[in-house]
Write a structure and sequence with these properties.
21 helices; 511 residues; mainly alpha; 6 strands; two-stranded antiparallel ribbon; Serine Threonine Protein Phosphatase 5, Tetratricopeptide repeat
Amino acid sequence: MKTFRNIVLFLAASLIIFSGCTKNFEDINKNPNAPVDVPTSTLMINAQKRLLDDIRDEWASGRMALLWVQYWAQVNYTEEDRYQPRQNVNNILFSSVYLDIVDLQRIIDICEDPEWTDLMAAYGNVQNQIATARILKTWAFQILTETYGPVPYHSYGAGNADFNALMAREDVYYPNYVDQEAIFLDMLNELKEAAAQIDVNQPAWTEGDNIFYGNALQWKKFANSLRLRIAMRLSAKAPAVSNAHIAEVLADGDIMSSNADVAAFKYGTTADNASPMYRAYFVENRTDFALAKPFVDLLKGDIGPFGLFDPRLPVYGSPNSAGEYAGQPYGVPNHVAASVPLTDVSLPNSPLAPDYAEPFMTYAEVCFILAEYNGWDQTWYENGVRASMEYNGVDAAAIEAYIDALPAANEENVITQKYIDLYMQPYNAWAEYRRTGYPTTFVLPGDFTGAVDPETGEDVYFEPLEPGVTDIIDRMNYAQEDQLLNPTGYAMGVEKLGGPDKFTTKLWIFE
């Protein structure tokens, strides 16, 4: 069923985004008696859920980014741990996220259609609906460009002719690939305009919003906070631009200010509506992952800069059968991984709850961004740690004891605490590592994995399956079908990438 769904997703997204054979696609699929297929509220709730289903599931996260940032390790088939991802999983990630963005664009198109504006107002202020769709589009495009590099891009506010993805209605079937600098600058502008577009005195949505339940002020805070994230990504490449945007956001004042403002989608308790990893473990019976040894050792204080037991560890993972916390060795061959009994390692804990709240962005991340912006500020650093622990339900006394013993703020400590908070947001953590080089606790190619080969008795060192990789991988290669469906755009993307379409080509934003 999963494979069939993925094929359908890929074909649908490809038809909408790329294929020149779909000139009459909309007309063929349009019901003449129903000019809008579904209400905007349905499009919004579907986009919110599907973005997380598609990015945070056992495939795009479990077998890609969660492994690369060593939150998790596979317990049997470890090819992806060793940088040999499944190309079909990559294809589906690329296409399904675009398909989700299409639904967000449909919200905008419907709300701006004079024939339907008044009708859609029943689901919330239409300008607020447009603004919230712009915010989530930007969130999704950031993941795409930080994963692949130059990609087809679409903007609401810019008149750039290169931003021509999602424009089949205007007979654009082969979109351009846009360089990262242009995408990042426009994403900042999109968030600035979307925040200004929001009327905080009107509901964003009356239904169909499982993030903020229609609270327009919280949507504005999310827009501004996401703008902080993207501006900080630019801090090395365009420091003046980065500082200007952060200063503007802080002057506005409407940013996340507590855990009540966290942007998260809370799943349901039934199997069909449960969180992605609950479905993987308990519906599909895929107990393929455990917490990775480097992450567990960091949280136990055995490695890394803190030397403290982190009280988030019992939230993030479960003790093994001996009541201890132990990670699965990372970067080992299949037979070595399979030799470790599942009862000997720590399995995930909180992410396996059916009603787990998948975050788009946390307040703690905002605190760590402001700690960095203010020269590794101690107060914002402590605020971030406290917010992260409170969000994860850690006891107040344990929080204060940990913070009292915490080493002072500096670059490594702030970014490493940010990494700990970003657990289950692996694409964001992957981007932060490529930007900063932290944490320093990863097992890298050539490093000792902490495992012993059961067949030879020799120490096992990390040998990646991708030639030439000396660190974690820098990017994902483009989906293979790009070359078939949009060869001109694909060639443009590789040219703007500035290197071969390989895992080892550094992206502009992280150079």
